[in-house]
Amino acid sequence: MCPPADQTNGVTKDEMVPIDNSNTPHIPPPTNETNGKSEPPPVKSHKGVYGRASDFLSNTSNWKIIESTLREGEQFANAFFTLEKKIEIAKMLDEFGVEYIELTSPAASPESRAHCEAICKLGLKRTKILTHIRCHMDDARLAVETGVDGVDVVIGTSSFLREHSHGKDMTWITKTAIEVIEFVKSKGIEIRFSSEDSFRSELVDLLSIYRTVDKIGVNRVGVADTVGCADPRQVYDLVRTLRGVVSCDIETHFHNDTGCAIANAYAALEAGATHVDTSVLGIGERNGITPLGGLIARMMVADPEYVKSKYNLSMLREIENCVAEAVEISVPFNNYITGFCAFTHKAGIHAKAILANPSTYEILNPADFGMTRYVSIGHRLTGWNAVRSRVDQLNLNLTDDQVKDATAKIKELADVRTQSMEDVDMILRIYHTGIHSGELKVGQSAVLDKLLDKHMPSRETSPSRANGANGTPAKRPRVEETA
Ligand SMILES: [Zn+2]
Question: What residue stretches are annotated with the Pyruvate carboxyltransferase domain (predicted)?
Fold first, then answer.
C-alpha cells in the first residue's frame, strides 16, 4: 500500500515553524496573518521583469502530459510493477488528471499484454491509454486488440541505430511506417509516430519521414532525445523547424543523462510542441526522463492558472510516495515541490522576508500542492524576526529588545547543537517568565543560563543533528546568510 498522503519524507518538523498550517495544539490556527499583519496578496504572474513578449509558437499555456511511468518507468533498474500496483498507479494518475498514460508494449511479454488489457478495462475517467510499440505489423496487431485508445510507434532513425540495432535503411523505415500507421488508423484509434534518438539523426531524414506520416494522418509525431544529449537550444531549433513542416501535434521525450530533461521539455513547448512525456520521479532507462513533478513545477511558473485548472496538484506527493515505495527508492531531498526541504527557509534574512511576504523567496506556493511552508529557527543562522514570529504564536509578551536578547541565547546554544522546536519554545517560555517575574533583565546572559539550567537540565547534551529523509542523519549544512 502507499504511504499516507501526509507523510513528510522524514522532515524534522520539531525544529521548524510552520507558517501556514500549524497543527501544534497551543499555536493559533492557521491564518494568513503574520505578526498581526495581513499577508500581501499572492503574486499572480511569475514571469518577472524579464518576461518576453508572447511568442506565437509557444504552447506553454496549451500542452498535455503523456505519463509513461508504466512504460518508460518499467525500464527503471529497480522497477517491477505487479498488475495490482500498475492499476493503483494508473488510477492515481487518472485522478491527478494526466491526459494520457503509456503502457509497456503487449508484445514485450504475455504478462505485459494481460496488464495492458486489464488497465484498458478499468474505465479511467479522464486519462486515455496508449501503448508503445516497435514499428512492426506484428506488434501493431497485438496492440490494437488490447483495447487501448492509441498506439505510440517508435523506430530508430539515427545512423547508430540503423547500423547497429535494426539494420534497416530510411526507405524501409518509411514503407513500414506507412503500413503500420494505416493499419492502426483503420481501427479508429490514435497513432503517434516517433523517431528514436532524434537528435543524432540526419535532419533531412527526420523531416522527410515526419512530413510523410503527417500527410497520411498521424495524430502526433514524436521527437525523442533517447540518449539525453540535447540541450534546450537544440531542442528549440529542431521543434521549431518541425513545427513548420507538419500540421499534426508534436510529442517530445527527453532523457535526463545530462540534466536537461525539464529544460528541454520547456524549450520544446516554447517552440510549438504540444505533448511532453513524463514519469513519476523521472524513473526510466538509465537515470530516466522528465519528471512529472519537475515539469509541473516548471509549468506552474509559466502559467499557474492553467496548470491548476488541469491537474489535482495536491495528489502529487501521494503519487510520488506510492511509486517511490514500489521501486524501493526515497523521494530525493531536493525533489521539486515535495522534497523535504523544498519549502523550508533557514537563513535569517530569508526568514524575515518570508514572514513579511512569502513571494520574496518562493516562486511556488506550497499551498497549491497541499504542502506547508516552514521557517527553521533553532539554528545558529536564525534571526530575531523569525523568533519574534514564534513568540507571537506562543502568545508571549516580549519587546523587540527582549526578543533580540532571547535570539542571541538561541544562537549561542545552537552553536553547540541544533535546537529542536521544543527547545526553542522552552527557552522562550523561560525567558518570558524570567522577564515578567523580575528575575531576568535584557543582557543578563549568565542569569538566563542559570534559569535554563534549572528548568532545562538536559539542554547541554552532546551535539545532535537533524534527521534527514527516512530518518538517516543529515549533515548539518553550512548555509550562508544571503545565499
Ligand atoms: Zn525513453
Answer: 63-317
